[in-house]
Design brief:
CATH superfamily: NADP-dependent oxidoreductase domain
Number of helices: 12
Bound molecules: NADP nicotinamide-adenine-dinucleotide phosphate
Oligomer: single chain
Order of helices and strands: EHEHEHEHEHEHHEHHHEHH
CATH architecture: Alpha-Beta Barrel
Strand content: 5-15%
Radius of gyration: 19 Å
Length: 314
């Protein structure tokens, strides 16, 4: 199945309210017009009265879009292995509910996280359910999220026995979260198994855009996190800024392009047309080897990088 060179993550977390919907639709349209056609969401995105809202919006935007690349749109969702989901049928029901919110079949269905760290056997029937969806033709592709190389190989074996390919694996990957590749070796295993690695939170939630500083911190849960990250990443951020200035690009564009140069598909979240426009400008060119080496070096020096997702497995 075809996916864009990068994609738009639609998480509807901090700062979302319904008054943003028109702007988000413009973001969606701009992305598709520019060839960004993979849209990632999750059935756990949006809580309380916003439950399922992200999937509903993406479905509506897709139906209302008319223009270039219309037939390339790929709606990817992640089904959560909630404690009350136990059987393969639970996964089929979950997928049907997501498809209903989309108003169409899911293109890429992903297991949101592995239960290996706390309930190792819970996920096997659920993964079998994902396989059933593929075999029944209800999804075009199956992917995983937050799996490490050991667990990935086991799941790959399970699917290979049924002749089901794994399309993608998404992990937290950015200049401030290199461990999945440098420590766990996930990219290498993905390459060996023919799986596309998707880089989520490629801007480290906004730290790598350069717009935040100790004097200008975001509110909410990012506030405390950014205080620490901004001080650990000082030298990396200067390097990003220098490369951005030399190339007449923005720091966000450099950070996203670095992910592309590493052979991954970044899915930056954009909340406004201007952010999306900027992020689209990360495509169509490449950092050179010297710039990548300089960024790698600075990234390796960061003593306290972004914390890994608690569900990330080995
Ligand atoms: N599989 C998983 O477990 C998992 C976990 C997390 C995320 N994801 C996926 O990855 C997607 C993206 O990740 P994310 O939203 O966590 O992090 P991100 O892409 O690293 O950061 C997105 C945030 O950065 C800011 N931003 C984006 N573009 C910008 C620009 N050009 N200039 C300035 N600021 C900009 C915006 O926030 P402000 O404007 O408020 O600063 C935006 O919400 C999610 O939507 C989701 O689909 C998956």
């Amino acid at each position: 199945m075809g996916c864009g060179t990068w994609a738009w993550g639609n998480r509807l977390l901090w700062g979302y309210d319904r008054s943003m919907d028109d702007e988000l639709q413009k973001v969606f349209n701009l992305c598709v017009e520019n060839g960004v056609t993979l849209f990632d969401t999750g059935d756990s995105y949006g809580t309380g009265t916003l439950s399922g809202r992200s999937e509903e919006l993406l479905g509506r935007f897709t139906q209302e879009y008319e223009g270039a690349n219309q037939d390339q749109i790929c709606l990817a969702t992640k089904l959560a292995p909630y404690p009350w989901r136990w059987t393969r049928n639970d996964m089929i029901n979950a997928a049907n509910a997501s498809a209903k919110r989309f108003g169409q079949n899911i293109n890429l269905v992903q297991m949101h996280w592995s239960t290996a760290n706390y309930f190792p056997w819970q996920e096997w029937p659920l993964l079998k359910g994902l396989g059933d969806l593929y075999e029944k033709g209800l999804v075009q592709g199956v992917g995983l999220s937050n799996y490490g190389p050991k667990r990935l190989k086991k799941v790959h074996q399970l699917f290979a026995e049924r002749g089901i390919p794994i399309t993608s694996l998404q992990v937290q990957y950015s200049l401030l979260s290199t461990a999945p590749v440098t420590d766990l070796g996930i990219k290498q295993v993905c390459d060996e198994l023919g799986i596309q690695m998707i880089a989520y939170s490629p801007l480290c939630l906004g730290v790598l855009t350069g717009k935040y500083s100790q004097d200008k911190l975001p509110s909410g849960i990012r506030n405390l996190l950014f205080r620490q990250l901004l001080s650990s990443a000082r030298s990396l951020l200067s390097c990003l800024q220098e490369i951005a200035q030399n190339r007449d690009k923005t720091m966000a564009q450099i950070a996203i392009n670095w992910c592309i140069c590493k052979g991954t598909t970044p899915i930056p979240g954009a909340k406004s047309v201007s952010q999306a426009q900027q992020n689209i400008g990360a495509m169509g060119w490449r950092l050179d080897a010297g710039e990548i080496a300089a960024l790698d070096q600075e990234a390796a020096k960061v003593e306290k990088p972004m914390v890994q997702n608690i569900f990330q497995t080995q």
